[in-house]
């Protein structure tokens, strides 16, 4: 079964599957996929992550429950146009046995289907693999931060915020502010872990604090680093950054050396309000 709200991609994938000797059924909504799962003996389900009203991970959980209730075994392959290590880990934890990035060519699809057909239950090996991927994800996040924190080209005219008078104007005040923000970030990181990381934490505030700290330390922060600093899933952080830019809280600067990357900065009026607020808290 191929599940995606894009009918063109569904038809293209189904055609490739048919050419490989399989008998595909298609679904362009979660509801249609559930109906197929209940009425057909689905051995493999290829599911797009970005499904309206029900993301691919939730749909895998739902379809897995239906298959298990009927004593059937269905193997899942997650597909997405925006792959990330975090999403790959989440997909495997949701019982997806493979992960493909769009555009998917026939050879990648063939290999994924072969792996699905030859898959044997190995819970211990799966657990070890998840641990390795999680560890690798943490290491990549750390490396991304180190690599991305480079000097950045000057922002567009008028975007470079001036130092807020009476707050970070002197070197001593600036050092105190840097230390204070670092302490806040450490506190926020600890607070966000309460309740398993799902109940507490403010991604927007974490991003603003991280960018303000970078501004005071005269270093650049890329979009990917800001996502890491938010403490939220990458997809959530990217949506939040997009909204902050549209609300004129942040601005984006394209990396002149790498067109695939861009940096973030805080607009002047927002930076001044933050510095004034933090200076008041620091003086208490």
Provide a quick synopsis of the model.
With 284 residues, this protein is α/β, with parallel strands linked by helices. The chain has helices at residues 7-19, 30-39, 56-69, 85-93, 106-117, 123-148, 171-192, 203-216, 223-230, 234-246, 268-282, and strands spanning 2-3, 26-27, 44-48, 75-80, 96-101, 221-222, 250-254, 262-266.
Mean pLDDT: 77
How many helical elements? Answer: 11
Termini Cα gap: 61 Å
Low-confidence stretches: 120-125, 146-154, 156-169
- The radius of gyration is 23 Å
- What structural class results from the helix and strand content? alpha/beta
Specify the helix fraction band.
40-55%
Order of helices and strands: EHEHEHEHEHHHHEHHEEH
Total E-strand runs: 8
Largest sheet: 5 strands, parallel
Shape estimate: elongated
Q: In order across it, which strands form the biggest sheet?
A: 2-1-3-4-5
What is the strand content?
Answer: 5-15%
Walkthrough of the structure:
- By secondary structure, this protein is an alpha/beta fold.
- The chain has 11 helices and 8 strands.
- Helix 7 packs across helix 11.
- It starts with a strand and ends with a helix.
- About 10% of the residues have low confidence.
Annotation keywords:
284 residues, alpha/beta, 55% helix, elongated
List the helices and strands and how they pair.
Elements: E1 2-3, H1 7-19, E2 26-27, H2 30-39, E3 44-48, H3 56-69, E4 75-80, H4 85-93, E5 96-101, H5 106-117, H6 123-148, H7 171-192, H8 203-216, E6 221-222, H9 223-230, H10 234-246, E7 250-254, E8 262-266, H11 268-282
């Amino acid at each position: 079964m191929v599940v995606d709200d894009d009918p063109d991609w569904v038809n293209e994938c189904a055609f490739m599957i048919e050419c490989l000797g399989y008998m595909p059924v298609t679904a362009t909504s979660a509801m249609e996929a559930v109906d197929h799962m209940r009425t057909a003996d689905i051995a493999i389900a290829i599911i797009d992550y970005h499904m309206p009203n029900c993301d691919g991970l939730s749909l895998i959980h739902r379809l897995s429950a239906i298959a298990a209730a009927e004593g059937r075994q269905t193997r899942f392959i997650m597909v997405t146009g925006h792959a990330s290590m975090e999403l790959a880990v989440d997909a495997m934890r949701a019982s997806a046995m493979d992960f493909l990035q769009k555009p998917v060519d026939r050879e990648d699809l063939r290999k994924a289907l072969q792996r699905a057909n030859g898959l044997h239950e190995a819970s211990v090996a799966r657990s070890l693999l998840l641990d390795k991927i999680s560890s690798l994800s943490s290491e990549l996040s750390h490396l991304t931060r180190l690599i991305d924190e480079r000097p950045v080209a000057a922002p567009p005219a008028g975007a470079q915020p001036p130092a807020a008078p009476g707050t970070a104007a002197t070197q001593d005040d600036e050092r105190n502010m840097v230390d204070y923000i670092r302490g806040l970030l450490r506190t926020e990181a600890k607070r966000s872990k309460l309740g398993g990381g799902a109940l507490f934490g403010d991604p927007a505030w974490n991003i603003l604090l991280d960018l303000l700290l970078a501004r005071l330390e005269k270093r650049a922060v890329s979009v990917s680093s800001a996502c890491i600093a938010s403490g939220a899933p990458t997809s959530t952080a990217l949506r939040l950054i997009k909204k902050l830019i549209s609300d004129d809280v942040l601005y984006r600067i394209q990396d002149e050396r790498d067109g695939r990357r861009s940096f973030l900065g805080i607009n002047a009026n927002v930076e001044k309000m933050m510095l004034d607020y933090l200076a008041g808290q620091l003086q208490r």
